[in-house]
Amino acid sequence: MYTLTEYHKPFPTLTNQIYTYNKKCVVPYYTNAETKADYASDRSAYQTMRWARDETIRHGMAYGTAYPPFGFGNRDLNVTQSWLSQQYWKEIVFFPDTSTDFVAQCGGNFSSTMQSDLTTNGAYVFPRGFGQSMSWWSEANFAGTEAEFHINMEDQSIGMPPLYPKTVTLSAHDWRNTVGLTRHDEHSFFGLTSRCRFYEKKLAVEAYEFVYNYTNCHPCDSFKYAAPFFCVRHVKKSAAEAISLAVSNTIAILGVLIAGVPFIVASRGRPAPSSAETCA
Hints:
The chain is of the alpha+beta class. It folds into two domains: 33-225, no CATH class; 234-270. 28% of the residues lie in helices and 8% in strands. The protein has helices at residues 48-58, 102-105, 112-121, 166-172, 197-212, 239-269, and strands spanning 65-66, 128-130, 134-138, 149-153, 158-159, 188-189, 193-194. The strands form three sheets. A three-stranded antiparallel beta sheet has the order 1-2-5. A two-stranded antiparallel ribbon has the order 3-4. The protein has a two-stranded antiparallel ribbon with strand order 6-7. Strand 6 (188-189) and strand 7 form a beta hairpin. The longest helix has 31 residues, at 239-269. The radius of gyration is 30 Å and the shape is elongated. The N and C termini lie far apart (96 Å).
């Protein structure tokens, strides 16, 4: 186990379903990418989570889960979208809250050098997309799990695998050709640094919050587009109904006028009281 995927269950007392985005939720690769002239919101190649989900189809649904070639970027890169096809994924980085002291929170598993790297260069969070229904269950302390868990996934469900600061992650990129770099070590990140669960959870939480801040991407937003919470029905009125409604409205207006005319006439014909008049 060389990376760990974190999941968020938005409604844990109701369901084990993890966060699942709806089709109106669009999260671009980096902040403000949607304002660039060549941005196309209808293409999965321009959306981080949608590409993650589409990769599961491209892989023939063999595992039902996949990752996109780019992660989340929460800063404006000041480049055009077409730049992504010419540059590598390493420039799309995620910057967490800089006020968090991971050195103190990780008990020696996060160095001051890594903290500085994180502040300066950011880290990586690649959404893990799911393209089919599945369910995972594990007992406590099995394969690195801390507690028993049970989660359900559906099409367009998203998990968050947080990677480590940019310099460390890039060092692990070509792990196959690195002598002594181990892939299957649940206690370290590719054998380069000891893992810190506080860091991984914090980065995943901030990544989910980043997604939820986009329009139509909050977990509650999906209810707006799902039955029985949302229903739109367009009923076409016949010519007879339209004429009937028009006549009814006309009669109603005439009724109001007929009832109001005598009052208007009476109030206009009555002389104004003089200053000498008093009310009995």
